[in-house]
Write a structure and sequence with these properties.
The chain is α+β, with helices and mostly antiparallel strands and about 130 residues long. It has one helix at about 1-15, and strands at about 30-35, 50-55, 60-65, 70-75, 80, 90-100, 110-115. The longest helix is centred in the N-terminal third of the chain and has 16 residues, at about 1-15.
């Protein structure tokens, strides 16, 4: 439900703040993905996760431990993925997380999120 409620929030912005005008098209690159409370997710350190960044129904970047740096911060219970060479992203972006150690039932992944690039603020997006 968080993705759906996020889009309800986007709709509210388009309707009430932007007066039904679409936001100005913005592009940005994902440089870092942080997963909080990683313990208990797959291996519990993020090393087993594969992250697909999808735009216009095409995978534009795949993050694995071969293509990204994965840092497990034990003290704060988080996994930090440093993403090099991510292409410019715009419009609707989907990020899928999968692992052989997790059930990948829905959309062939363990979990995913959608966001609209134009509505990210200060090149940051915090999802809960």
């Amino acid at each position: 439900m968080p993705a759906q409620s996020r889009y309800v929030g986007y709709f509210d912005i388009v309707k009430n703040v932007l007066n039904w005008e679409m936001p100005v098209k913005k592009t940005f690159k994902i440089r870092k993905i942080v997963i909080y409370s990683i313990q208990g997710v797959g291996e519990g350190n993020g090393a087993d996760l594969k992250i697909e960044i999808i735009m216009q129904h095409k995978t534009v970047f795949t993050c694995t431990r071969q293509t990204c740096t994965v840092v497990h911060d034990i003290d704060t219970n988080r996994a930090i993925f440093l993403v090099p060479n991510c292409p410019d992203l715009c419009d609707d972006v989907k990020v899928k997380f999968s692992s052989l150690k997790l059930p990948n039932y829905y959309d062939d992944c363990a979990f995913f999120m959608w966001f609209h690039a134009s509505l990210a603020e200060r090149n940051r997006l915090y999802l809960t």
